[in-house]
UniProtKB/TrEMBL annotation:
Cited SUPFAM superfamilies: P-loop containing nucleoside triphosphate hydrolases
Highest rank taxon of the organism: Eukaryota
Name the record gives this protein: Uncharacterized protein
Keywords from the UniProt entry: GTP-binding, Metal-binding, Nucleotide-binding, Transducer
Organism field: Quercus rubra
Length: 199
């Protein structure tokens, strides 16, 4: 799906976004179609927060944890030459479903999350204390951030989304536009600084 939308933050730029659903099986060593995205400013990578205990069959016919499959797909995209030095926004989706699920199914069902040991406080019913779902989503974001930092020198941006709530999706897209704006401003500032140094 290719669409244009107005970007009030940057009135002189027209943004285009393209939504592509990629199955891990479609990424192999000879995945040349990713080269089409060399002009991409930002990659939005979506992960379902509730996939930590779900399984699917990988391209070799092996039953694989879906969160681990997302992790491997993330590594493949981040390390692909087309996306070198590109901005990445990790979208953690289905937070509303995680709120219900995390109370019944521990995050440690996924071997990548075996070290998740949230501290239980007597004040856990206090509205200012983060819920178990909030701590779990923060932890998942940190795990992806650690992975990202081990693969690149860039910063990983993270946004929490409830896919069926348009406001949270719009907020994530606004955040993506702001990241692009920051990047453009930084490039412009670097160009000016280098020009001043040349003078």
């Amino acid at each position: 799906m290719l669409e244009s939308f107005d970007a009030p933050l940057l009135p002189y730029f027209e943004y285009r976004y393209q939504l592509i659903r990629v199955h891990p099986r479609s990424l192999g060593e000879h995945c040349k179609w990713l080269d089409m995205f060399e002009d991409t400013d930002i990659v939005l990578f979506c992960v379902s927060l509730t996939d930590y205990d779900k399984y699917s069959v990988d391209r070799n016919g092996v039953l694989t944890n879906k969160m681990l499959a997302s992790k491997e797909l993330f590594k493949s995209i981040v390390t692909h030459p087309t996306f070198e030095n590109k901005n990445f926004l990790l979208i953690l989706n289905k937070f509303d479903l995680l709120v219900e699920k995390i109370e019944q199914v521990p995050l440690t069902h996924c071997e990548w999350f075996r070290d998740f040991k949230p501290v239980v406080s007597p004040n856990c019913h206090n509205s200012t204390y983060p819920s178990l779902a909030q701590r779990a989503s923060h932890y998942i974001g940190m795990k992806f951030n650690e992975l990202f930092r081990s693969l690149t020198d860039n910063k990983l941006f993270v946004s929490l989304v409830i896919g069926l709530e348009n406001d949270t999706v719009d907020e994530a897209l606004r955040y993506a536009r702001e990241i692009i704006m920051w990047d453009e401003e930084e490039k412009a500032y670097s160009s000016c600084s280098s020009l001043e140094n040349d003078l």
